[in-house]
Amino acid sequence: MGSVEQGIREHLLVDVDGVAGEKLPTKAAKLQVRNLTKRSETTGEPILREVNLDIPEGAIVGVIGPSGSGKSTLLRSLNRLWEPSPGAVFLDGQDICGLDVISLRRKVGMLFQLPALFDGTVADNVRFGPQLRGKKLAEAEVQKLLSLADLDPAFASKPVTGLSVGEGQRVALARTLANDPEVLLLDEPTSALDPISTQNIEEAIVRLKKSRGMTIVMVSHSVKQIQRIADVVCLVVGGVVVEVLDPSRLSQAEHPMARRFLELST
Ligand SMILES: Nc1ncnc2c1ncn2[C@@H]1O[C@H](COP(=O)(O)OP(=O)(O)OP(=O)(O)O)[C@@H](O)[C@H]1O
Ligand SMILES: [Mg+2]
């Protein structure tokens, strides 16, 4: 291992503003990533290289990095949409490869950049997850979930076909929340939204952290957004986690890409 890589590794594991790293007691980390390497199934090229990361319970962790750097792959490895190697990802100290995949995904819910909704009403979509487990959500429960996702409860009876992208995104968030997840993985949840919808989603995310103690990992291309809502920011470049730090200290980051992102971010 080269000295730069060694330095990064030591930085990550030893001192990351007291929020990430092996010095913390295990129970402080909701998710732990250990030497996660992921190769392309087609070319064999590494997409993620020996990623080490602790995701503290009840924190919002922002993930930034250039296009193609492996951010979505990292997120997908956390709930086995991409299968990590055994011993690489732990939820509450348990190797996720040993967990039932359906219950894992219920606990670690994911919201995609452009989520697909099922034909039917907003309420049909929100009820979908619990229904799979034989539970029918009452009207009031559906409305509560819609409010959590910052949608007017009157949306419940609307067909999803007429929704705007921003409204659809919030319905998808409500649908994910219906599974009562402990961790929420958000892959660029506001990239297709106008500034007001973006602000609404950001507020909803912060509320989920504060009111439910939810652990949230959010990929975003907006450093400013990360600075508004995240407790920790993780910079991924070329499949390597090169920095983990307090978002307010991005201007002092060692990696030049961090400062470049900060300068260019809207
Ligand atoms: N299913 C796949 N098979 C092979 N290679 C893949 C697959 N999915 C992603 N990759 C490759 O892995 C690399 C990282 O992709 P990933 O989608 O994780 O990047 P990203 O950081 O999320 O990018 P963006 O900001 O554009 O969303 C890219 O080079 C991509 O082409
Ligand atoms: Mg991506």
UniProtKB/TrEMBL annotation:
InterPro entries: AAA+_ATPase (IPR003593), ABC_transporter-like_ATP-bd (IPR003439), P-loop_NTPase (IPR027417), PstB-like (IPR005670). The gene is LOC105050819. GO terms for molecular function: ATP binding; ATP hydrolysis activity; phosphate transmembrane transporter activity. Belongs to the ABC transporter superfamily. ABCI family. Coiled coil: none annotated. Residues 31-263 form the ABC transporter domain. One of its GO terms (cellular component) is membrane. This is Protein STAR1 isoform X1. Keywords: ATP-binding, Nucleotide-binding, Transport. It holds the Pfam family ABC_tran. GO terms for biological process: phosphate ion transmembrane transport. SMART domains: AAA.
